[in-house]
Amino acid sequence: MRIDEHKFFARKLDYDYRMCVKGEGVWVFDADGNKYLDACSGANVSSIGHGVKEIGAAMQAQADTIAYVPPQHFLNQPTIDLCRRLLEHAPDHFTRVMLCSGGSEANENALKIARQYHVYKGNSGKYLNIARWQGFHGNTIVADAVGGTTSRRKISAPMLPEVPHIKPSNCFHCPYHQEYPNCGMLCAKALEDEILQLGPENVSAFICEPVVGSANAACTPVKEYFPMIREICDKHDVLWIDDEIMAGAGRTGKFLAIENWDALPDIAVMAKGLSCGYAPLAAILLSDKVWKAFRDGDYPYIGGHTYNAHPVTATVGLAVLDYVEKNHVYENVEYKGKLLREGLESLQKKHPIIGDVRGLGLFQGIEFVRDGKEPFAPELNVTPRILDRALEKGLIVYASRGCLDGRRGDGLLVCPPLIINEEEIKYIIDVLDETITEIVAELKAEGNYDY
Questions:
Q1: Are 222 and 211 in contact, with CB atoms under 8 Å apart?
Q2: Is the pLDDT of residue 282 over 90?
Q3: Contact in structure between 270 and 241 (CB atoms under 8 Å)
Q4: Concatenated DSSP letters for 205-240?
């Protein structure tokens, strides 16, 4: 449907949207009877696939009992049970959970928690947050401010609070023009440089994604990076906030993606795969260190939202955990991720336009290049062309633009539901192969690519 055929304020005003009517497993269907393999889980959301009947049944049962409980007056059992279950899956390092409605809201609350932590610890001068370029943390004002995507920030910039950004950890496009492992880990040391420049007495928190999502096509730091971040934050009394909204909830084969490194954050933020798209749900996991600042002084958290402890959405979170445990979903991610990675690397060998394949588990990314590591001009719209052509062929993938510097750099996220099977992984690779072959031929015909 085009914009003049409906009243919805759609994201793209010039786009002819297909009408989705049904989902089953890894497939979604439009009103014309076409089916598409959802190779990005919507927006890295639908980890257990579409149409899982027991989730809807659990929602209905809870809604029939009570759909909303005012959180300023009461607790409710689904909320209590979900927080306990989340901590059972997470490292023992975490001891409390706050529930929210989505990732942007959760990240903003995580930053507020960090600020209040320092105030309650007697360090009220610590208010600045540090983030990374080519990162994404949500679409609300503060989430936009800590985000590092130039195209998303440029209109909102006058409204955004001050947030210093450091260069990302990106071995494919090292911002320091070094080669790992002889790079001195300058990308991690950049955090300490920035803290010292700003004054440690002024810095509250550092926020980053363990595996970068939409802003940098599953860019993944090396093993030394996060242990160094942990050491720097401890040294200067800065809280480390780990944005697990895309990478968490089993996406890399572990409950939290950060468990792939030998370091743990002070606060972890989750969403998307917690409810797998069946209801809006996010969670903020607090380490005991953070929780103690509130508990020991009997200080309240100054914040809260209408849906912080919604019994129906909490019930969804519980039903999703039941499903992944019963079906051993997380245990199979490493194997399936290996198959997906091998398939994408086979495409890289065949198509020089694929400069890099990266990621962990079923959270993989591709970056497209014109020559070696040289990006295409943004106006060529390489990523949208590949996305649209893949969609025509029955495959949904997720765009990642601005991988290099926020403006240049074309990429894709390939992050299918965790329930995907081997035949369906092969389908992803085959359709991407056809798609890339066709787009490359068109770029060559236009004189925009000569490899």
A1: no
A2: yes
A3: no
A4: EEEE-SS--TTTTT----TTHHHHHHHHHHHTT-EE
- CA dist 244 and 255 (Å) reads 10
Task: Please provide the CATH number assigned to the domain covering 54-326.
Answer: 3.40.640.10
Evaluate if residue 297 carries a pLDDT over 90: no
Give the pLDDT confidence of 402-415 residue by residue, as tens digits: 989 989 999 999 99
Single-letter code of the amino acid located at 118: H
pLDDT above 90: residue 170? yes
Helix (H) or strand (E) holding 412: strand 410-414
Among 161, 166, 152, 151, smallest CA distance to 198 is for: 166
d(CA 54, CA 58): 6
Q: The whole model's pTM is what?
A: 0.96
- How far apart CA 406 and CA 165 sit, in angstroms, is 13
3-state secondary structure of 186: helix
How big is the chain by its Cα radius of gyration, in Å? 22
Task: Give 420-447 pLDDT, tens digit per residue.
Answer: 999 999 999 999 999 999 999 999 999 9
- The predicted model gives 120-138 an average pLDDT of 96
Q: 289 and 266 in contact (C-beta within 8 Å)?
A: yes
Instruction: Please count the CA atoms within 13 angstroms of the CA of 428 that sit on its side-chain side.
Output: 34
